[in-house]
């Protein structure tokens, strides 16, 4: 058989580069270094620092040593900082984190959309530690050692960092960790545990994701835990929707504009309770809904913005892609006797087939996931509502979508950073676009 020459696969270069200046932070909070090998993004580095790093792959660098530290550098408060992939900006002073987040949005809007806000409000801020009301924990059962690991994912890895505290989670949640760990390790088949979500709203919820239904013995074990810890347990087994462990358990509720909204554990819930309330209030101030106006709300979830808007007397058409959230939104609107039409639809599909999309709307509010509103924004732009309030959790997709609005004749009147995820690089931004007269 003929031998064919095959060049050996090129290994990515892993050269160490020393004393390199960091020129800025990117939107993922990584230091940008323009090295002789090209631009590298280095997690943990700060603007103005000089660092040693190892070049990894085409674009990344691993921080090895800080030769000259920034005056904005602080000692990370969390003992898991080096291992956990969560709070990746806690080495930057809090005020500077907020300045950086606004700067990122300003720059991305200018670079990708040629959009400049007419004015910026100061960032909306609240507690920067112990703020998270939901915490998702990864689980792994080591069959050989008969040991359960319960923790958070390491940075860019599937590894789990076992934790007994998380400084950004509310204390009601972290206080559960030791007893939860020992209870879950006693399950008959702990390998069936996918992940665990802890939620604190009007009650504390432990949602267990399982690959199969729990046995009667496991249910009894969990029931005893729930009683001892005064929590509600929900089970999310295989393809079934999440169910309460006990039939008498009620749906949990969270607050929005003095209303209590029901939601199903597992469905979307804003992470920071205080800032979620403040954000809704600010969005309403800009939207300024009037009785009789017709408002289209996209990516509505279980009604965090919808019901406060409807309280003003405006007619709201709220669109959401997850059926359980549409059901909850519809039920709460009925209980409160509010004018809401809650519709299940995929906003990424062509809107010509949707009857709700054939009406005209005075104003639009949208709050998409990180992917942004790549199709929906073109549909909105065609319909030319007077005002668009865009709530974004990803500045890169906001900039992409803002370009469509700008091309369709909208101006960015105001913008504001919501410090929804302190200590992390994640950025939440509220924007107000107005159609030019
Ligand atoms: C950032 S959450 C906002 C939810 C709500 N506004 C709130 O404040 O709680 C985004 C929502 O968009 C929904 N979603 C994502 N992609 C969608 C799509 N293609 N069509 C409809 N809804 C979608 C998600 O299910 C989620 O509820």
Automatic annotation (TrEMBL):
S-adenosyl-L-methionine binds at residues 270, 299, 320, 367. The keyword Methyltransferase applies. Pfam families: tRNA_U5-meth_tr (PF05958). The keyword rRNA-binding does not apply. Keywords: 4Fe-4S, Iron, Iron-sulfur, Metal-binding, Methyltransferase, S-adenosyl-L-methionine, Transferase. Transmembrane segments: none annotated. SUPFAM superfamilies: S-adenosyl-L-methionine-dependent methyltransferases. The active site is at 393, 393 (nucleophile). One of its GO terms (biological process) is rRNA base methylation. InterPro entries: MeTrfase_TrmA_AS, MeTrfase_TrmA_CS, NA-bd_OB-fold, SAM-dependent_MTases_sf, U5_MeTrfase_fam. GO terms for molecular function: 4 iron, 4 sulfur cluster binding; rRNA (uridine-C5-)-methyltransferase activity. Gene3D superfamilies: 2.40.50.1070, Nucleic acid-binding proteins, Vaccinia Virus protein VP39. Belongs to the class I-like SAM-binding methyltransferase superfamily. RNA M5U methyltransferase family. This is TRAM domain-containing protein. It comes from Pseudidiomarina atlantica.
